[in-house]
Amino acid sequence: MRPKVAVAIKVGLVAFLLAPAGEPRAEPATPAREEDGKFFDAEGNPTYRIKADGTVDWYTYSGFRRYHGDCHTCHGPDAAGSSYAPALADSLKNMTYQQFTEVVIQGRQVARSGNTSVMPSFGTNQNVVCYLDDIYVYLRARAEGALDRGRPEKRDEKPQAAKDAEKACLGG
Ligand code: HEC
């Protein structure tokens, strides 16, 4: 494991341990707070912001792209699910941010009627770890019915904070 990735995972885990538990929610969320183009709910969990004209925040757009880079092969386009893996647009209705990050970082194996269902661990995949919040807010928007299927047509510019965080995480 490259040191930068280990750091990213540690930061993720600390956030995971410090964050309040929070009830799973399935209502379109209005962000409580903005920090350099990134949005948070009242519990401090990352969320999306979609304007009335359909413009999505940068992280939601980025999450759409990252999801369709590493997750859609199993979980289906637009998080709609496949015969192989569950529809995350449904799963996220009943999962907290903490539960989501835990499954994606650690992976999960479940034995069901003679077959083993495998969610791979993405803890060492920079294309996922460095964009975990992006993927989360995209899926959250899908789960809460705030975002239709397909590529968002309008998006905010990439914030400087996103460029800085990406550089630090990728080790560029
Ligand atoms: C190789 C196929 C595969 C890939 C790629 C994959 N997953 Fe999964 N994932 C699964 C399977 C299968 C399950 C169901 C595991 C089980 O039976 O509990 C799962 C479960 C999950 C769950 C838990 C869902 C629930 O309802 O409990 C989450 C969250 C998740 N995956 C997120 C992701 C994300 C985010 C990505 C991309 C970074 C991803 N997965 C990529 C196969 C995959």
UniProtKB/TrEMBL annotation:
GO molecular function terms listed in the Swiss-Prot or TrEMBL record: electron transfer activity; heme binding; metal ion binding
Domain Cytochrome c residue range list: 62-138
Regions that span the bilayer: none
Gene3D superfamilies assigned: Cytochrome c-like domain
Residues covered by region (Disordered): 147-172
Keywords: Heme, Iron, Metal-binding, Signal
InterPro entries assigned: C-typ_cyt_methanol_metab-rel (IPR022411), Cyt_c-like_dom (IPR009056), Cyt_c-like_dom_sf (IPR036909)
Top-rank taxon: Bacteria
Signal peptide from the UniProt entry: 1-26
Name of the featured protein: C-type cytochrome, methanol metabolism-related
Organism: Microvirga makkahensis
